[in-house]
Amino acid sequence: GKLIGYVFSPSRSGETPRKVLGASQGTLVVDAYTGYNDVCTPDRRQRGGCLAHCRRKHFDAMAKAPEARKALDIILDVYKVEHEALEKGVVGTAVHLAMRQEKSAPAMASLKKWLEEQKPLHLPKGPMGKAISYALNQWDALTLFLSDARIPVDNNRSEGMLRIAAQ
Question: On the chain, which terminus has fewer CB atoms closer than 10 Å, C or N?
Fold first, then answer.
């Protein structure tokens, strides 16, 4: 199986990711927290975005902006592809990547188009404006999963395990 480990740090600085990750390479799937910036550089490792964080911001915006439901519906289409790959037992394979290219890539393109259309309709500091800005500012990281089937669409598994460890 896969091993998930945690290192406790009393601060949220970028020092802990630097110590833990060292000179390793690969992809780090995280939210937009700036503490990861130093370890996510072209010569170190790629930053994969967390679609669940993007989704959560739109979910939270729905109280003031019901149109955020559109973003949730599109993101759900991406998660359906991930569920289908899991059911078929093809997660992380070329078949999974083909499924992402066929179904998730158009969904993400649709989401980006919708976000760009919605952006001028919302105050930048309002809940919907913040959700839109988060998604567009993180777009390259949020869509990195479309180029590599080994990259998960979110870091929910890790965060879920962290909640267990924190109890």
Answer: N
